[in-house]
Amino acid sequence: ITQLYGPLNWFGNYYRVIQKNFVDMEKMLDLFKEPVEIDDPPEPKPLIVKGGEVVFDKVSFAYDPRRPVLEDVSFKAEPGSTIALVGPSGSGKSTILRLLFRFYDIQQGSISIDGVDIRDVRQKALRGSIGVVPQDTVLFNDTIKYNLLYGRPGASDHEVFVTAEAAQIHDRILSFPDGYETKVGERGLRLSGGEKQRVAIARTLLKNPAIILLDEATSALDTRSEAALQSALLTRSRTTIVIAHRLSTIVNADQILVLKEGRIVERGTHESLMRMRDGVYFDMWMKQLKDEQGLGGLASMTSMD
Ligand code: ATP
């Protein structure tokens, strides 16, 4: 009987995992709101991600044909580099990440990873090579360990602990009533915004993808912990594309792309952009400094440098 039920049971579990993943995918970030149907190519090419080079070449895109959202966007993320996307609300930052995940097809131009157009590969392969750290992480109503293993279901306990430590959440988990077996989520232990983000980071570290998309939290973490966590993620062995809300966390990015109304209006390193005194980036900095001063946040800003 065990022999008979074994595989069925396995399938049952597997099916539940798929279902849960599906729900999570849909909820994942506001970033991935309302994904539309995208078909795999009839003869998919293999996607062998090596360095994780990302190229947007003259990309134009609109959710609604009457209203363009991205126009003629071109950039190249060198393997292992960090690219930061900044710009006012609605300028198209999240859309760039959604397009890289191929939740929508673009109307013009091309997007490629390590030289392969993302339309030519299976979506599963594409999404398997990219890790996402959303701003708002959805936790399953399951144990904290299950939630971490979601990054890579086959990982060993040791690997889970190591990555939790890197994401600075291991000690916290040990302080929970049942440690890694503690139930979390809506019906279990509620984690704070910052803790949830650490779980998302640990998951992504477990998955160990060549490309990471990071939607920086606006308020879950203070600037100092945010910088520490980002440095756990940022290594030269991965390409990182980060949507930055707080400019202080991206001063070391290799390239900052400043978006405005769907176009890249400025690009460069922090230093080069700050030299343009009449530039959009410079303005954003001045505004943010003023706001943080107003909120008494100057101390945390200056201690960053
Ligand atoms: P924020 O900083 O506020 O998150 P953003 O720069 O990430 O903004 P996007 O979310 O990329 O901006 O949105 C760019 C534009 O596309 C906005 O005008 C938005 O209203 C529009 N948009 C976003 N998602 C959709 C959608 N699913 N359908 C139609 N329009 C959308």
UniProtKB/TrEMBL annotation:
Subcellular location field: Membrane
GO cellular component annotations of the record: vacuolar membrane
UniProt keyword list: ATP-binding, Membrane, Nucleotide-binding, Transmembrane, Transmembrane helix, Transport
Any GO MF annotation of the entry: ABC-type heme transporter activity
Main location class: membrane
This protein's record includes keyword Transmembrane: yes
Keyword Zinc-finger: no
ABC transporter domain span: 54-286
Domain of life: Eukaryota
Family assignment from sequence similarity: Belongs to the ABC transporter superfamily. ABCB family. Heavy Metal importer (TC 3.A.1.210) subfamily.
Protein name stated in the entry: Uncharacterized protein
Whole sequence portion shown: 685 to 989 of 1126
